[in-house]
Amino acid sequence: DNFYVDDFARFTTLDSKDKTAAVANSMTYLTKKGMSSKEIYDDSFVRPVTFWIVGDFDKPSGRQLLYDAIKHQKSSNNIRISMINNPSEDPNSQNTLVAKAIWAALQTQTSNNAKNFITKMAKEEIAKAVEAGADILEFAVGGMDINIFKEAFESPKVDFILSHAIYCRDVLKLKKGQRAVISNGRIIGPLEDGEMFNQDDFHLLENIILKTSGQKIKSQIQQLGFEEDLASDLVMKVDALLSAQPKGEARIEYHFFEERYSAVKLRPKEGETYFDVVAIVDPVTRDAQRLAPLLLVLNQLINMNLRVFMNCQSKLSDMPLKSFYRYVLEPEISFTADNNFAPAPIAKFLDMPQSPLFTLNLNTPESWMVESVRTPYDLDNIYLEEVDNVVAAEYELEYLLLEGHCYDITTGQPPRGLQFTLGTSTSPIIVDTIVMANLGYFQLKANPGAWTLRLRKGRSEDIYRIYSHDGTDSPPEASEVIVVLNNFKSKIIKVKVQKKIDMMNEDLLSDGTSENESGFWESLKWGFTGGQKNEDAKQDKDDVLNIFSVASGHLYERFLRIMMLSVLKHTKTPLKFWFLKNYLSPTFKEFIPYMAEKYNFQYELVQYKWPRWLHQQTEKQRIIWGYKILFLDVLFPLAVDKILFVDADQIVRTDLKELRDFNLDGAPYGYTPFCDSRREMDGYRFWKSGYWASHLAGRKYHISALYVVDLKKFRKIAAGDRLRGQYQGLSQDPNSLSNLDQDLPNNMIHQVPIKSLPQEWLGGETWCDDSSKRRAKTIDLCNNPMTKEPKLQAAMRIVPEWQDYDQEIKLLQGLFQKEKETGTPAK
Is 10 exposed, middle or buried (0-12, 13-18, 19+ CB in 10 A)? Predict the structure, then answer.
C-alpha cells in the first residue's frame, strides 16, 4: 500500500499536509545493514536521522547526490535513506529508466539486494549504459528476484514519479529537476546547478541533527517500546514538528521577595481560574508607554492577577519621555444598537497641559501607509491655549506595503537599479519601484487583493529573468509572481534573478537605461498627480523643470506656496513640483490641484516608507531631513534626469532653468557653500574648527537649502546606497548628524563628491553680508542663532516681495473657498 503515491489522480486531490503524510508513509528506507520497511524486519535499531534525497535520478547531478548519501551511510548506523524523484521533463516510460529501476527495486527486493542494486544504478557509467539501451537485468545483483523486478520495471505506469513531481512543485516549492536534501523535515536546498553536497556535508548534517534534537527524541521514544521502524518514523515526525516551531525564551519562575511598595497590583475575580501576569517596566520609557494600554486591554479580555513592578533608573540627567502616548486598541469589535459597526476606535488625550506647543504624530505598523485626511488644525503646531474647542484629526489607512529583497544568483549581490512592476490582470502596471543595493530592498504600495509582480519592460526585462522567489503565492519557477495581500500583516518576499545568457556583460545602469521612459511610474493615481496628461517622456525631460520640496505644518506650507509662486514668476519653462506626501496637511492637498490649474504647472505627491532596517528617527523634523537626502534614488522615476531641491522658506529671484543646466563636472549633486561674509556670525560657524575643519581639509561646508541632483549619475555611482550605509553607522550615535540633511552629504564629500555652486545662488541675511543680497539669485530665510528672530517676521522684513506673494496666495485661497462653498467658479 503506497498511500496514493501509486495513484496520481487521487494524490493530486490531497492538500499539502496530506501529500506529505502520503509520501512519508509510502517510503521504504535503505540502512547500513540493509533495508528497513514495515514489511521487512531490520536489525532492531532506531535510527534518529532520516534523509530524503530529492533529485532527478535520470540526470548525473541527481545520481551523484544519491551516491554520496549512500557512501556516507557506510560509515553511520544512525541514518536511513529514501528517495523522491524530481524529474526535469514530463515523465514517461522512456525518459525515467533509472528512476523506475530504483523504485522497482525498493518495492520488490529485500534488504541488501535492493541497496546494492540502487548503489549500482547511482554510478554514472552504469546509468549511461542503461540509457543507451543496455538490458537492465545485466546489472542485477546476486539474490535478486528477477521476475518480479522485471514486471515492476516494465510496467508503463509512472504514477509514482508524477506524484513525486507534483509533491516537489506544490509542497517543496522546487523547480523541475532541482535537488534538495530533507532531513527530519528540514529542507536543505534547492541546491544550485553545479553545487556539491558530498559525504562531508552529509556527515555534518547528521551531527547537527543528532546533537540538536535527534538523539534526545530517540531516547524518549525508545522508552515507549515501539517497533524499530515505527520508532524511527516517530523520531523523524516529532523532530520535524519541533524544529518547525519558533524558538522562544524558556519560562523562568521568579519569586519576588518584596512587592509592597514597588508593584501595582490588580487582583483577579475570586472563584474563577485566572492568569498570573507579571510585568517589569521602567515607567519613564517609550516601551512603558506602549505596555500600559496593552495590559489594560488584556485585563478586559481575561481574568488575571496582574503585578506591575517598577524597575526605575536611580539617576537621570534628562527626562527620557517627552511625549504623551495613546494606543488605539479595542478589546473586541463593537456594534451599535441597530447591529452596525460602531464608529472607528479613537485615541483621546484628556486633561492636557495648555502651555506647551504639541505635535501630533502616529506610530503605525511597518507595512502601513497612513495619512491625515480631515482636520482644519495645524497638527505640527498645536497650542491648546489658543484652541476654543477640541483638536480633532481623522486618519486613513491608504496603502499596505509589499516589501522584498532581490539578489542576482550569479554574483550574490543585489541588482541595483532593477525595476519591478506591480499590477493586476486588467492593469498590469499600477505601481513600480527600483531595487536598492542596500540588502536588495524594494517596496511597492498596494491594497488587499491578488497582485502580479513582474520585471519592468525595457532594460530590466531585457537583461534579467526571475529565477526563483520565496514568500509568494505562486509556484517558485513562475516568471509572473503572484502575491496575495489578505491581511494587515507585513508581506516580505524574496526574489532571485539571473542575467540572460547573452546579457552577461550588460550593465543595467549603463547609458542606455532609459527604461521605457514614456511609461515609467504609471502610478499617477497612486501618487496623487495633477496638471499633466501622458506625453512623451523625452519631451518632459528636456523641457520640464523638476522642483522637489518638503514641508510640514501650516506655517511651512504657507512658505512653500510662496516659494512656488516665486519660482513661477521667474521662468517660462514648464514646471513640475514634487512634494513629499507623508507630512502634508489635508488643507494643502485639497488646495494644490486648484493652484496647479490656475498657474498652469504640474505636480506630484511622492511617498516612500522609511525602511524598517534603516535606523529610525523619532523626531518629525529629523525624519523630514532624512527624506531630503536618503531616498533621492527611489523617490523619483528614471525619466527625471535632474531634480532641484528648494527649501520651503526660500524666495527665488531668477530662472531656475539656469541651475538645472549648470555643469556639475561629473559630480552627482551640487550644493551652495555657507556664506562667510557676515563676520559677526563667525562664532556660530561650527565647520571652521574641530572635526569639520579637519574632515573637510580646506573644502567648503555646504548648506542643504538649495541643491541640484543629477539623478542619472546619482544612481550610476550608487550614491543613495552609500549615503544610507554611512547614515546607518553614524546615526547610532545621538551626538552625530545633528543637522542630518546637510551633515551627511558633507561628511561623505570624499566618497560622493559635491560640486560647489556659485555663492550667488543662495543668499541670506544670517550668514551673508548686506552687499551680497543684491546679487543673490535666491534668498534663504534660515534661522538666525544670534537674534532668534521669528521666521515670519524675518520674511516680511528681509524680502520686500514676500508680502506681495503672500497676498496673491491669500486671494487665490479666498476664491477657492468661495467656489468650494457655492459649487460655482468665483469671479
Answer: middle
Cis preceding-peptide flag for 190 (omega within 30 of 0): yes
Question: 522 pLDDT exceeds 50?
Answer: no
Domain that holds residue 718: 551-574+581-809
Query: Would you state the pLDDT for residue 511?
Result: 54
For residue 205, give the C-alpha cell. Answer: 548534517
In a domain, 827, yes or no: no
**Are 108 and 190 in the same domain?**
yes
Domain shared by 688 and 735, yes or no: yes
First vs last Cα of the chain: how many Å apart? 88
Strand order in the sheet with 529-530: 529-530, 602-606, 575-580, 545-549, 642-646, 702-710, 669-673, 754-756
| Residue 455 and residue 311 in one domain | no
User: Is 139 exposed, middle or buried, given 0-12, 13-18 or 19+ CB atoms closer than 10 A?
Assistant: middle
Q: Which of 50, 53, 78 is nearest to 65 (CA)?
A: 53
Sequence length of the chain is 827
> For residue 532, is it within any domain?
no
- Cα–Cα distance for residue pair 58/121, rounded to 1 Å: 10
Do residues 414 and 406 make contact, with C-beta atoms less than 8 angstroms apart? Answer: yes
DSSP structure string for 32-88 = TTEEE-SSS---S----EEEEEEE-TTSHHHHHHHHHHHHHHTT-SSEEEEEEE--S
- DSSP SS3 for 230: helix
Grid cell in block for residue 679 = 563676520
CATH number of the domain encompassing residue 427: 2.60.40.10
Same domain, 488 and 600: no
Torsion angles phi and psi, residue 580, rounded to 5: -75, 115
The answer on 621 and 515 residing in a single domain is no
**Cα 647 to Cα 782: distance, rounded to the nearest angstrom:** 10
- Any domain includes 185: yes
Question: What is the count of structural domains for the chain?
Answer: 4
Q: Rounded to whole angstroms, what are the CA distances from 180 to 61, 80, 189, 241, 660?
A: 11, 16, 5, 19, 55
- The answer on 442 and 324 residing in a single domain is no
| 48 vs 207: CA distance, rounded Å | 11
- Please check whether residues 439 and 507 belong to one and the same domain: yes
Note whether residue 250 is domain-resident.
no
Q: Do the beta carbons of residue 43 and residue 34 sit within 8 Å?
A: yes
From 292, 315, 348, the end of a domain falls on 348
The pLDDT of residue 250 is 65
In contact, 616 and 642? CB cutoff 8 Å: no
- Partners of residue 406 on adjacent β-strands: 495
Stretch among 596-605, 679-688, 805-814 having the lowest mean pLDDT: 679-688
Residues in CB range of 28: below 8 A, 6 or more apart: 35, 36, 37, 82, 106, 107
Q: How would DSSP label each residue in 647-675?
A: -TTEEE-S-THHHHT---TT-SEEEEEPP
Question: What would the pLDDT profile of 108-121 be if each residue is shown by its tens digit?
Answer: 887 678 888 888 88
Confidence of residue 247 (pLDDT cuts 50, 70, 90): low
Between CA 790 and CA 276 the distance in angstroms is 55
Q: Which of 244, 279, 308 lies at the terminal end of a domain, its last residue? A: 244
Cα distances (angstroms) measured from residue 361 to each of 379, 381, 735: 8, 11, 24
Domain match, 603 and 683 both: yes
**Of 533, 525, 271, 242, which Cα lies nearest the Cα of 398?**
525
Q: What are phi and psi of 642, to 5 degrees?
A: -135, 145
Give the closest residue to 308 by CA, choosing from 257, 252, 264, 253.
Answer: 264
